[in-house]
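Hi, here's the filled form for the chain we discussed.

Project: internal
Contact: R.S.
Residues: 236
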Amino acid sequence: MYCVVAATRRPHPSPALHGPPGLGAVRLLDVAPGLYLAVADAPLDRYDEAAIGQVLSDLERVSRAALAHEAVVESFAAASAVLPMKLFTIFASDARALAHVRARCRHIRAIVRRVTQRQEWAVRVVRERTGAPAPVEACSGVDYLARKKAARDAPYQALDALYHRLAAQATRARRWPSGRKAPSSARALLDAAFLVPRTHAASFQALASRQARSIARYGYRLGVSGPWPPYSFMRD
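And the returned structure, exactly as it came back:
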């Protein structure tokens, strides 16, 4: 199972679309009016529990499968909403897959309402360079400590302000604890996701670009990626 697709008209997967190695052509199952399940046949000799265990032990194979899975999910990006499934979500038959999804149809409808015509954008801020802090002018002990604390806190206050400015352009936002490793192997000082209406995507990107220039003076680099399916907003 790749994803649940919400669409006013039944999508038509491209015959050239291929998922992870060995899977059949992508096809759609009717879940309910306006809801479809994108699936593909998985040969048992390549996708039973033991075979998947071998794949999961090989990071390169997992990465290839994940990219192929993601490509199928993203192929439905033009639909009203796409709810991605986890990699290697497998059922014994179409009937069991449909029963699983239909049993959760009420919850799925609620997610669809939340994410319809919206995209996820990810924002990460990392420290690009380090250097000596700006000197604090000589003054009384109490004032010195207060100014030193203010100088230390200023960049983090700037990141908080940045997050809230971007969140104001989104219908939902999520922020993870700082310190997670970013793809560049640097520690992320801000790691957040924003659910943005498609009609606001350009203004959101423009705002992010302005904010990137604003925090550059602190030696921080802001990176934006997207649009993505709403992975971070599948749960309340």
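Let me know if anything looks off before we file it.
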